[in-house]
Hints:
- By secondary structure, the chain is an alpha+beta fold.
- The protein folds into three domains: 1-175, Reverse transcriptase/Diguanylate cyclase domain (Alpha-Beta Plaits), CATH 3.30.70; 180-233; 249-409, DNA polymerase, Y-family, little finger domain (Dna Ligase, domain 1).
- It has 14 helices and 13 strands.
- The strands form three sheets. A five-stranded mixed sheet has the order 5-6-1-7-8. Strands 9, 10, 11, 12 and 13 form a five-stranded antiparallel sheet that branches.
- Helix 4 (82-97) packs across helix 5, helix 9 crosses helix 10 (226-233) and helix 11 (262-283) packs antiparallel against helix 12.
- The longest helix has 22 residues, at 262-283.
- It is globular and about 70 Å long.
- The structure holds magnesium ion.
Amino acid sequence: MIPKPIELEILFVDMDAYFASVEQMDRPELRERPIAVTPVLAPTGCCIATSYEARAAGVRTGCGVREAQRLCPEIRVVKARPDRYITVHHQILSAIDRVIPVVQVESVDECWCRLFANERSPAAVDRLVAGIKSAIGLRIGPITCSVGVASNRLIAKTAAGMCKPDVVMSIRRTELPGPLRELGLTDLPGISKGINRRLRRAGIHTINDLYNRSAEELRGAWGSVLGVYWWHWIRGDQLPGPKTHRRTVGHQHVLAPEFRANNRARGVSLRLLSKAAQRMRSLGYVATRLSLWLQCVGGASWGDWTPVARTDDTAELHVELLKLWRDAPAGNVLQVGVRLEGLVLADVQLPLFGAERSRRSLMAVMDQINRRGGADTIYLAAMHHERKTAPRRIPFGAPPDLDLPDVDGSGW
Ligand SMILES: [Mg+2]
């Protein structure tokens, strides 16, 4: 006999407006007020998180500070404190862990747990969620989360995002699509604007359309086997994502004589990495490995690599690249290459709520502006010095300032 499929198994915890909520928790004067968090306190800055009070006034993540102040004159703009968010993240994980083991951390404000057979009744789920919320309240402070419960991660995560803040939503497998019918396609984590465009071209405009297509039709709509996975996921099946694609994106450059000193080559490598990361994002991938290689003047070559946590974030990758440079041989460099490896489809693997989504949408906005306005119209603060060492600028640029900035503190 085939066992009956499990109705509820994954419990997904998603903190509400996480960075803004941490600020409101730490500073009572900010509570119940519209606030925005920005990496740089300046009118030209960008809101990477907003409180629900700010969202009510139309201020969204990705909004410029000036625009936020126009939409909501009483908004308080506060500077992001990444270290604090990470500290609170660990405290939250250990609070949840006291109630139910955390199986996987998805991002700084999301994780999920697996329900055992005796934890799957509505009453048991309510008890667990109450336990999680009170553990967070007691051990950390007034900060809320939303919880989604379903048979797989996709539906649980979708449920957690559906009626924020501070709610619990269970969607049983046999109810599907049920409440999902009210959503737009891009409300499903993993359906990016790009995928949405593809689906529209295939005549899929609503969640109902998605459910009405066969697995083969979805394969066609996605243009890959991923469509078949989606057919299963939206039905609540537990099916691990497709295997890692063995693709790489990289750039290399032969250095002009004046750029061969080790520190100058390092600056060029950061620029190459930025280009590669932009290219990777345009392809819709995230990297799991970063490699650096050098050919030295005199012929010797050297290379090293490091695993990275499924990222497409230029700032994070910069930090990892600078770590690789610590072991690079001293001496002059003739040629430098940077490669992003072990690429995985971003839409399958990356969480798309909260911090990750903010960062990804920031990167997407940067890429868009740079495509329109030319490279380096906008760039990360960490690249302020390096950008002048860009190969495309070498023939024209003034001698670059080679003081490497403190990339670790470069924000987001
Ligand atoms: Mg969140």
